[in-house]
Amino acid sequence: MGAEPRKIKILIMSKKIKNYLIWLGSLIFSGLVFFMTNNAFAAGVGETTGIDLPNPLGQGTTFITIINNVLNYLIYISVPILALMILIGGFQILTARDNPEKIGSGRKTIMYAVIGFAIVLISKGVALILLKIIG
Questions:
Q1: Average pLDDT in the 28-52 region?
Q2: Are 70 and 57 in contact (CB under 8 A)?
Q3: 80: helix, strand or coil
Q4: What's the CA gap between 119 and 131, in Å, rounded?
Q5: Using CA atoms, how far apart are residues 47 and 125, in angstroms rounded to an integer?
Q6: Cα–Cα distance list, 43 to 16, 78, 102, 133 (Å)
């Protein structure tokens, strides 16, 4: 019985040492990463570090081009969502059997998915028209 409390103390001590070593190692690693990648210390007044950050919004930064870029991503996202919602609506219709409420729910799901996709397409068209008029 005398050996069991000592084993527990050794385990607790080893966990504390392990946690301390992990903390110390991560601190040293993060310090090394910071000092190895931070080129701003070497740059003088008016000098650049050679890092070039591109504009994440694209070449044109007008409001219409930003809206056009956002709508492009919306179209890329809405096509799979449309397909998924049509499949869900079709599944609702197939599993409805003779229940007219479930058949109506499936039809509404498909109809609202198509209407939502049409709204995304129309908004893209409006943005393109505005881009041609303004730009």
A1: 62
A2: no
A3: helix
A4: 18
A5: 45
A6: 42, 46, 68, 45
Q: Amino acid identity of 124?
A: K
Q: Is the dihedral of CA 40, 43, 44, 46 positive or negative?
A: negative
Query: Residue 135: pLDDT above 90?
Result: no
Q: Where do the domains of the chain lie?
A: 3-41, 63-134
Q: Is the dihedral of CA 40, 41, 44, 45 positive or negative?
A: positive
CB 67 within 8 A of CB 116: no
Residue with the larger pLDDT of the pair 87 and 131: 87
60: amino acid identity, one letter: G
Radius of gyration of the chain (CA): 30
Question: Which residues, 6 or more positions from 130, have their beta carbon under 8 angstroms from its beta carbon?
Answer: 64
